[in-house]
Structures are given as structure tokens and as C-alpha cells.
Amino acid sequence: MEYYYLVSQLPNISSAESKSALPLTGESFRELAGRFITEEEKKILAELSLVPPMEFESTGSAFLDVWYEKERNLRCALAQIRAQKMHKDSIPLPAGCTADIVSAARTAVGMDSPLSAEQFLFDYRLRLLDDLRPLDAFSIDAVYAYGLRLLLIERMRKFEVENGKTSYHKIYDTILSNDGVN
Questions:
Q1: CA 20/CA 180 separation, integer angstroms
Q2: If we measure between CA atoms, which residue out of 7, 28, 6 comes closest to residue 154?
Q3: N or C: which end of the chain has fewer CB atoms below 10 A?
Q4: In whole angstroms, what is the distance from residue 105 CA to residue 163 CA?
Q5: 70-122, pLDDT tens digit by residue?
Q6: pTM score, two decimals?
């Protein structure tokens, strides 16, 4: 099924936009899309998430299945590299974990600033999303890709430098004060 009317109504969203309000929120996107898609597609759209299930579960969309596999592999690579850095046991990487995913995870973990690492991973995920984007710009998978892009941008906009520093120092101070307790 083609979604010309739906896709043509979706405003362009860019990760480079300033902190001004997005032209569309995740909720308003789902409401708009819900007018044009089937009940099964609505269910898939409602479950759209940046956090994939740890085990493979078919979504009903080949595009989303690939996206979730790549994201799951990235999260596993991040976990493994962080565990190795802390000299802890880690789970083995999934078979589908490619060298570019491991490289991205290593780069992110090696950054000095958590905010810089988040920005790097955000950019990596947007590039990956662009690489996986369906060729048919008016397909349901294109609608799902738009939804994921919107979720990524909304998530990244929540990061604020001052709030992050305050939270970091609070956690750090808590860790230091509890260090002598054990």
C-alpha cells in the first residue's frame, strides 16, 4: 500500500535544527499516521521504540527487524566494551555484529564526555537509519523510518549540558561518600 497523502503531510525534521520546537511530536505523528494506516500497522507504530527487545521478535516489517537487529548489536557491543574497560565479564557479541558497529561502540566508549558520546551515537544512528531507509519513500517502512528519526531527535533534545553536569556530580559525590562504607 502506498502512503502518498500521509508522507506528503509529514514536515521535514532535521537533526541540525536549533533547540526550537519540532514541527511534530511523536504523539502527533502517531495520531496523524493513524488516519492513513491499517490497524496492524498502527500496532507496530505504537510499539516503535529506540530500545529493541533483547531477543529477536519479528515486527512484521523487514525494515524494522533490520533496524532493531543493528541497534541490539550496537547495545551489546557498548555493553561488552564497557565491561572490558571495567575488567568485568561480558556477554559475547551477537553473530550479526559488524566491524562498523564495534568501531562505533569503541569510539563512543572512548570519549571523555558522556554528552559527546551520546552525540556521536546519535549521529551514528541517524546515518544508519539513512542507510537502511527504504527506497520507496511512500511505503509504510518509510513512515516507520520517519518515526524512528523523530524519536531519535526528541531523545537527543532532552540532553542539557548543565543538568547533565549537575547529575554527574551528584552521582559522583554519592559514589565517593559510599566508597568507605563497605
A1: 45
A2: 28
A3: C
A4: 24
A5: 999 999 999 999 999 889 988 889 888 999 999 999 999 999 999 999 999 99
A6: 0.84
